[in-house]
Amino acid sequence: MNPPIELRKTRDFGQIINDSFIFFKENFKSLTISLLIITGLFLLASVISNVLTYVSMSDLYSGSFARSPGFTHYTSSYIINTLINAFIALLTQVFIHLTTVCYISVYLQKGNKQPTFDEVWGYFKYYFLRAVGSGFLIFLLLCVGFVMCFIPGIYLTPILYLIIPIIVIENSSFKYAFNKSFKLIKDNWWFTFGVLFVMGLIVGMAAGIASIPATIISVGSGFLSLKSFTMPVFIICSILRGLIMIAYALPSIAICMSYFTLSEEKEGLGLLSRIENLGKNDNTDTGLPAEEY
Predict the structure, then answer these.
(1) Which domain covers residue 216, as residue numbers?
(2) How far apart, in whole angstroms, are the C-alpha atoms of residue 43 and residue 243?
(3) Mind listing the pLDDT tens digit for each residue in 132-174?
(4) Do the Cβ atoms of 178 and 149 come closer than 8 Å?
């Protein structure tokens, strides 16, 4: 059996990506249970919303090719369903992010041991309102940043992504987390941005691949008779996308790994903890021979 992942340690770029997948794999069952229970309603709403969006897309292309008089209605219906779908997807990702960060925080507090759902749920309830308020402020800051020539928004993204992990893991206020995120990101912006970009790209590509069959059917319905299997394909692809959304825990794990790496470089809390624990653990507990010098 592999030893549990130690969170408080410095990692390079490749180690963060690799350890994020290892952590997700080793904690898959307990983490997935927490995610399904806490975000299950949003995942279900996301599946239904995806189906409705695919249907409206199919109607739009069918009406376009048939030059239907109801084309304007199909267009407005598609736009509305797309906006609703995007909003539900955003809420789902927010809940997945907070649940994952709470899971990691409990994991850390228990000494790198898997937490139970009750423990994760307790953390989630405690930090929910604080995280929602902080999330709203983060959203406003990102909107302002992207409106200002787009580049400021890109610059703020990795900085603001660190705020929720700092709030939950350190039990801090938004003001403290905001200031510390700038402190941690100093001279490490590209490092943190790269981690977010790679993990987001991996999960985004997986979700995109799951959407390809439904998108092809939606577009093809405009000039082919595909009604016999259109709805089953829409439902299957929507369920698959809903399940893949659980993988959005990976970017959350990666940003937490980045937080621990940056914190260790600045503060060395993990190193201090290991120094304090030297000699406290009996060698028989590890199953490994004592070191020889």
Answers:
(1) 16-273
(2) 8
(3) 999 999 999 989 888 887 888 899 999 999 999 999 999 999 9
(4) no
Query: Residue 44 CB: number of other CB atoms within 10 A?
Result: 14
Query: Token pair 């624990």 is at which residue?
Result: 277
Secondary structure element (H or E) that encloses residue 41, with its range: helix 28-66
CB atoms within 10 A of CB 276: 9
Q: Is the residue at 269 inside a domain?
A: yes
Q: Would you say residue 140 lies in a domain? A: yes
pTM comes to 0.86
Q: Which amino acid is at 5?
A: I
Residue with tokens 């048939």: 66
Residue 279 lies in a domain: no
Crossing angle between the packed helical segments 71-109 and 28-66, to the nearest 10 degrees:
170
271: helix, strand or coil: helix
Distance separating alpha carbons of residues 6 and 113, to the nearest angstrom: 10
Residue 227 inside a domain? The answer is: yes
Distance between first and last Cα of the chain:
27
Residues 6+ apart with CB under 8 A from 60: 71, 74, 75, 77, 78
Q: Which 3 state secondary structure label does DSSP give 10?
A: coil
What local confidence, expressed as pLDDT, does residue 223 receive?
Answer: 60
Q: Give the Å distances, CA to CA, from 149 to 69, 127, 146, 193.
A: 40, 33, 6, 19
Whether 97 and 252 have beta carbons less than 8 Å apart is answered as yes
Q: CA-CA distance, 31 to 35, in Å (whole number)? A: 6
**Residue 260: enclosing H or E segment and its boundaries?**
helix 249-266
Token pair belonging to 132: 């929602």
As for how many domains the chain has, the answer is 1
Annotate 201-225 with b (16+ C-beta within 10 A) or e (fewer): ebbeebbeebbeebeebbbebbeee
